[in-house]
């Protein structure tokens, strides 16, 4: 069911979906393994798709931690809304990550501890990628972390424009194999 949804959405929206299959359990584990769930007060997820990372975060976060997931695709949004209804401190938004600051203001959130991203930066328009990364850098706490995965390292130069410390892990057990990038916003003046 999830694979057929992904294929259908990829065919309809290849620039915003970016994958023909949902992420593997191994990738989901790698995406959340470095999050300090005990100390996190706010976690954001860009592009949760059908919710494999979302589920891992919801299972590990503290009840009082605010978790915001922002999904652009209306079909995926509906799946997520049904799948995770009734979750504590979980805010699901059907919009672009470009507009996240509006929602942080609405919910009186100043800064974010972690941003987990499933966005396909390799296929997003360059201006959109830059806007999302600029907002990401701005809203992360000083020791906050942006965690994303990419199928190639094609966009590393772009990520380095916003983050000066990037660790990467290769995940072979995913279709296709991918890289998890853990990006730190250590220098507020880096652009």
From TrEMBL:
Recorded GO MF terms: methyltransferase activity; RNA binding
Signal peptide region: none
| Keywords per UniProt | Methyltransferase, RNA-binding, S-adenosyl-L-methionine, Transferase
User: Which InterPro entries does the entry mention?
Assistant: KsgA/Erm, SAM-dependent_MTases_sf
Question: What Gene Ontology terms for biological process does this UniProt record contain?
Answer: methylation
Decide whether keyword Methyltransferase is in the record.
yes
User: Know the name of this protein?
Assistant: Ribosomal RNA adenine dimethylase
Source organism per UniProt? Clostridium saccharobutylicum DSM 13864
């Amino acid at each position: 069911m999830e694979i057929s949804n992904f294929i259908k959405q990829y065919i309809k929206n290849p620039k915003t979906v970016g994958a023909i299959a949902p992420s593997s359990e191994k990738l989901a584990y790698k995406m959340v393994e470095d999050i300090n769930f005990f100390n996190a007060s706010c976690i954001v997820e860009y592009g949760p798709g059908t919710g494999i990372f979302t589920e891992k975060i919801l299972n590990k976060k503290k009840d009082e931690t605010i978790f915001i997931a922002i999904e652009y695709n209306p079909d995926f949004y509906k799946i997520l809304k049904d799948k995770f209804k009734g979750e504590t401190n979980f805010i699901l938004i059907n919009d672009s990550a470009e507009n996240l600051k509006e929602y942080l203001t609405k919910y009186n959130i100043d800064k974010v501890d972690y941003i987990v991203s499933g966005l396909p930066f390799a296929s997003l328009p360059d201006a959109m990628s830059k806007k999302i990364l600029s907002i990401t850098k701005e809203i992360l706490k000083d020791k906050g972390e942006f965690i994303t995965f990419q199928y190639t390292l094609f966009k590393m130069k772009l990520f380095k424009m916003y983050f000066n410390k990037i660790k990467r892990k290769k995940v072979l057990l995913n279709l296709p194999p991918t890289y998890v990038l853990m990006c730190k916003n250590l220098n507020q003046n880096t652009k």
